[in-house]
Amino acid sequence: METRRVSLLVGRKSYNILTPLDEDTLKEVYEILHDAASATDPAMEQDERLFLVAMNLANEIAALTRRVKTMTDLIEDGEPEVR
After folding, report:
1. Is residue 60 one of the residues assigned to a domain?
2. Residues 31-50: pLDDT tens digits?
3. What is the pTM assigned to this prediction?
4. Which residue has the higher pLDDT, 79 or 43?
5. Which among 19, 24, 13 has a CA at the least distance from the CA of 1?
6. What is the DSSP letter of 80?
7. Per the structure, how many domains does the chain have?
8. 58 assigned to some structural domain
9. What are phi and psi of 59, to 5 degrees?
10. Over 80: is that where the pLDDT of 83 sits?
């Protein structure tokens, strides 16, 4: 997969990174990251804000993982409805 260099503004700082993500996926990922960073206090230090963003995103991933496991268990058990 080919990589390209992009610059992303997160909080008050711009980060130059290499990414293999296509434009649509990068935009989607960046919007999630930007929204998470925007939910933090801009008066905080950048490293504290990024730590909170990482914790919030990890919490969301953990919650989604639990939901997927619950749905998978229901499907494997032959439950007729998955909500």
Report:
1. yes
2. 999 999 999 999 999 999 99
3. 0.78
4. 43
5. 19
6. S
7. 1
8. yes
9. -65, -45
10. no
How is residue 21 written in tokens? 């993500």
How far is CA 77 from each of CA 3, 12, 63, 70, rounded to the nearest angstrom? 42, 49, 21, 11
Domain carrying residue 22: 4-76
DSSP one-letter string for 16-57: EEEE---HHHHHHHHHHHHHHHHTS-TTS-HHHHHHHHHHHH
List of residues 6+ apart from 41 with CB closer than 8 A: 49
**Do residues 75 and 82 make contact, with C-beta atoms less than 8 angstroms apart?**
yes
Q: Which residue has the tokens 């960046």?
A: 30
Token duo for residue 9: 């503004």
CB 17 within 8 A of CB 8: yes
Rounded-to-integer distance, Cα 52 and Cα 41, Å: 10
